[in-house]
Amino acid sequence: MVMVGMVLSTAPAYAQHASDDREAGKGHWSLQPVKQPSIPVTKPARSNPIDAFVQAALAVKGMTLSRAAQPATLIRRLYLVMLGVPPSPEEVAAFVADQAPDAFERLVDAVLADSRYGERWARHWLDVVRFAESDGFETNHQRPNAWRYRDYVINAFNADKPYDLFVREQLAGDALGADVATGFLVAGQVDIVGSPDPVLTAQQRADQLDDIVATTGSAFLGLTVGCARCHSHKFDPIQQREYYALTAVFAGVRHGERDLPMPPEQAAELARVDASLAVLDQHLAPFAVPAPDSPPAGMTQRPAVEFARNEEQFAPVVAKIVRMTIFATSKGEPCIDELEVWAGDRNVALASNGATATVSSTLPGYDIHKPEHIHDGLVGNQYSWISNEVGGGWLQLEFAQPERIDRIVWARDRNSVVRDRLAVSYRIEAAVRANQWQVIASSAARTAFAGAIQSHAAPTYRFDAAQPSEGATSRLEQGRALLSERRTLERERADLMQSPRAYAGTFTQPGPVHLLRRGDPMQPAEQVAPGTLALFRPIEFRNDAPEQQRRLQLANWIVDADHPLTARVLVNRIWQHQFGIGIVSTPSDFGGNGAPPSHPELLDWLAQEFVANGWSIKALQRLILTSATWRQASTPLDSALRIDGGNRLLWRFAPRRLAAEAIRDCMLAVSGELNQAAGGPSFALHDIGSEYVRHYRPKEEFGPDESRRMIYALKVRTEPDVVFTAFDCPDGSLTMPQRGLSTTPLQSLNLWNSKFILQQASAMALRLVREAGDEHAATVVRAWQLVYQRAPTLDERDDAVALVQSHGLPALCRALLNSNEFLFLP
Amino acid sequence: MILPQSDNSFLPRRRFLVDTGMGLGAIALRSLQGPQGPKSPIRPTIDPGHPYAPRPPHAVPRAKNVVVIFCSGAVSQLDTFDYKPELIRRHGQALPGHDNLVTFQGKQGALTKSPWAFRQRGQSGKWTSDLMPHLGAVADKLCFVHSMRGTTNTHGPGENFMSTGSALDGFPSMGAWATYALGSVDQDLPAYVAIPDPRGKPQSSANNWSPGFLPAAFQGTDFNATNPIRNLARPAGITAANDAKSREFLQRLNRRHAQGFEGDTELAARIASHELAARMQLAVPEVADLSNEPEHILKLYGAVTDGSKTGDVRAAYARNCILARRLVERGVRFVQLFNGSYQTGGEGVSNWDGHKDLYNQYSRHGQVLDQPTAGLLRDLEQRGLLADTLVVWCTEFGRMPTFQVGAQGRDHNPNGFTCWLAGAGVKHGYSHGATDEFGYEAIEDVVTVHDFHATILHLLGLDHLRLTYYHNGLERRLTDVAGEVVRGVLA
Q1: ipTM confidence score
Q2: Which of A167, A700, B172, B451 gives the lowest tally of CB atoms within 10 Å of its CB?
Q3: What's the DSSP call for residue A69?
């Protein structure tokens, strides 16, 4: 009997004894110092210590390592495991022909230096840290600048950033010149639905902090710290109080966008543009008319206007009249669904509260678009007002009596159905009496609307002199030229002002943190000072320790060279992704509920070697890749299968299905469509609506942007990709230290019938003809080399040629891209 | 991945017979107890070549199949099934003991009686409102739970909680757990089907039928009577002959390749999955084709529109109800049928989120839900399917007995709400638990969402304490660390 999926098959034994004993689990193997085991002496002698440890364990069972895999198999395996894409036929031929004894070592070095390595290995880390690019829950807004953390991880792997620094930067990068790295802290889901309900708000905040604490414990320490939220841990020596000490470490962290420091070259360029603009403005001053739309002082940049809901907040002001003047729309005459003016908890704009509405004009002939609908309390397009002026118009509301107002909410269509006529440039003013207007809100304080606009606004400069004369004409021409230059510079400035932003931690000094009885935010108990876990040289900070120091100290504690968990956990993760299963099969649980190591001495030897080599992940991987253990053939042996069917003793390299991203990337690589553009904003697999509650509709057409590697696809929580999610691709809602390896009929249907696969099959067919001509036998050979890195057997070739003759080359490509040999690591 | 034979720590302590071929009642329950006593976890053993093979339950089940009818947006208990004479009497007064109560959207106004009258129905004399007369007429078949209590008052987390037992995204849904535990009787259809509302997806979208951290094999497959399974049909532009020949060629490729890997069952499982997929390509269009449903059945469900917009939606939802029955008929283990959607309008427009304009919105939603749902119950019963099928009607949470300040509707309220059960293993014409005199808070025989889930698993013959899956250091359950079977509702 066999099980589906790695996750099932690697589940540990059921926990033996739950305990509330404070000493529970203190003697557990993973909490003991890392040992320096002696390397076993084996026959035959093994030069790579990894092989010595593995061979010694095999020998106990009377087994031995398998022979080495064939060179063509080896290079395919190496590329797929380390880069996530197959080698080209030319790379295979060169390696197979290379008879030098260090040919494989050199190949390993080349692969570790390849920038595609970071793109492959970052994926594993992003799974562990539950990274996604949307908030999750019902609103599920995308995070357009979250990709910077993804790029940070890719670059960290490519640069072989020492792991201790990698950890420190993710927890406290703002103190180390690596702000983007703190994207780790806030990579998780967050419920942004705001409510005046204090219980809900407290629960949401407690959940955010729990997400950070639990992920920190599981990613870096392999501990299920989150269990101690409600009670002291049952299997590990973690008291509930310690959980809240960690909560206090992170209590100043919030989700959000973070301005990144402007690169010096950009700042210098900006200064140059500003100087030029100042000169131009002096020359243009005589032509200027008063600007209709200057932002009120003290307003900060806010999000662009949306169709479904826009909120304007301002310091309370007493007003009897409010007017909104519109200068431009996304298209056509502006439409206002409902305009609410709030005085505390009262919408004073409502007709039922005595307010009256006047407007500049009304689009004739529509009962559903009338001025009274602006403030009737009913929402939706059918209860809205539209002006009769393309790109402009105004509306005015007069209240029954002066009101102290502090908030305005307006929209195009609250129901998010109709998406046009949005006011994108506007000004809202308030007055007690007419002619005492003060601006209270304006589009100038918002990010520019992304789409096209239709403008109604008056020009800023006027060149239509009343009485043209000869001198005046040339002066006007000069003025127009200056204006044109100014516009160019303004565009340049707008680009330069885009100081890079990242979705990363934002930090403030927190107040006191309390232990919460049963994890309930409405039941706070005693105050808890920030601190580390007690299981290794505990540090407790002062109650008022500076926020950043808390995180930095925790990070330093985690990467202490003597910490029993940190190196073991990371070494095991690397091992898992190179062999398919870790030495500890529960990679994020090294506690009492986790599985014991299959090779404890090897794990410790690797861990101390890793720290001794300056926490270099590439050095560790090189050691593993060049071992005979990793280079074994994958051929099953009856005798060995009977003793160790799960290959825990590593008598062969066990084949396994590629993960979702690798399947997609490999298809694009083989079809020749792979767009290797690295880094930068993500491409979307969905068309995304802009409603408050985001809607994601799967794309059906795939262009060059969608042909980038899948790590660059916008990762959206709870919205599956219609082809590859079925291949156990997690959505980043929860940490996923180990992918499942399901086999399902939906996978078959998705790979067999989806547009994406058919498109790749067609592209591959064109590529084959391009590269091998239109003689069938030659195209078939080329196909085999591209897909499997080997030549077809005669049987295979004849079979394939027959299919091509009867149903064309795309039919062959479709089948090859669906075949097991393509989808499995050799 | 082959099960490790040598390392005891990777073996489940208790293995099941797989595919016993016996009737459910005849399954031997011997030696179900793990070595550590009767409450040790039970992880079902899955054959990757047959992930949907039937697997035995922990105890003799009362229900073979489950149909969950999930109302998105949070249905008001006070306008449907929870009759509160005191609310009618004290209409316009303040909710006693809750001065300045602030709920999800803000301040609360006065107690407000339902705009629909309540009257007694059937033999049981159950009081239900005039909003849904068809469901009122089948009240004798229903087992109401009036004392539901949740923990969250936000839609996304609320849907997650009812569907997965966790307010967060990313946990396995009820149907995924049931399919993981029990497999399916039918091998040509997905074991677990989610039927989205004709108006679009619910608020938490696919998280409602997510496999979470369970293997992807146990995810709900979503399709309805209008939109087929994506990637199911042979693509346009590929002839039947091309498709068949290419598939045969693929299977030859895979068999040749497998010759080098005797004993590697994952390769064999993939070969089997292609065959399963091919059968599904035939079976799913057949089950989704309602063209042979007779006139009287269409009428029973209200599947014929009167041409109005509401009539169109009702007819489309009714067709989803007929699809649900057809799936159950063919042995699909778990069907999740959605009513209401956020995609085409939140805040009560396309769902039950009646904050501002409850009367007009619920008038439409009631029409959509009422007759088709009642028709489904009657049809399941007349075909004898209700004896083996548990029907669960649920929602995210309840609503306030007060109207919101400045609005004509009710705010969110997780403190008390109503769900109902019907069919296999549960009492009928029965009401369990109660809210207070205004319907604000569950006070009698309180049923948490975990209790509700424990009860559903119990009816499927599963012990919620023992059905576990190891993920990231924890032996996870549908019911987290809580839940008690609600004995009072069991027949």
Answers
A1: 0.83
A2: A700
A3: P
